[in-house]
């Protein structure tokens, strides 16, 4: 519980120091990208601290490229 709270405080501090200069320069695309990445990173860190099983990125890559690999193998046989 306290670790989760610490993660949220760190994410809030990061946003507090990074967002105002971006807002002053009216960098809307950068603000959106930064916010999305900060939320994803915060959510993943909280999930890791709560011992939620997360899939490996290698599993996603294998899922995407397995049909392509099989098609190429069939093509050259």
Beta-strand level of the residues, as a percent range?
under 5%
Contiguous uncertain segments of 5+ residues: none
Radius of gyration: 19 Å
Structural class: mainly alpha
Order of helices and strands: HHH
Q: What is the residue-averaged pLDDT?
A: 95
Number of domains: 1
Tally of helical runs = 3
* Total count of strands: 0
Taken from the alpha-carbon principal axes, the silhouette is flat
Measure the end-to-end span: 56 Å
How much helix, percentage-wise, in residues?
A: over 70%
Largest sheet: none
Protein name: Tellurium resistance membrane protein TerC
Transmembrane segments: 6-23, 30-50
Keywords: Membrane, Transmembrane, Transmembrane helix
Organism: Lysinibacillus parviboronicapiens
Summarize this structure briefly.
Keywords: Membrane, Transmembrane, Transmembrane helix. Helices cover 83% and strands 0% of the residues. It has helices spanning 2-24, 28-49, 57-75.
Question: Can you put this structure into words, describing what you see?
Answer:
- The radius of gyration is 19 Å and the shape is flat.
- The protein has 77 residues and is mainly α.
- 83% of the residues lie in helices and 0% in strands.
- The mean pLDDT is 95.
- α1 (2-24) packs antiparallel against α2 (28-49).
- The relative contact order is 0.09.
């Amino acid at each position: 519980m306290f670790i989760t709270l610490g993660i949220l405080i760190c994410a809030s501090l990061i946003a507090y120091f990074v967002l105002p200069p971006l807002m002053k320069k009216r960098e809307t695309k950068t603000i959106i990208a930064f916010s999305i990445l900060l939320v994803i990173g915060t959510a993943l860190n909280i999930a890791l601290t709560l011992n939620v099983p997360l899939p490996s990125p290698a599993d996603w890559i294998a899922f995407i490229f397995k049909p392509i690999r099989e098609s190429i193998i069939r093509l050259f046989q």
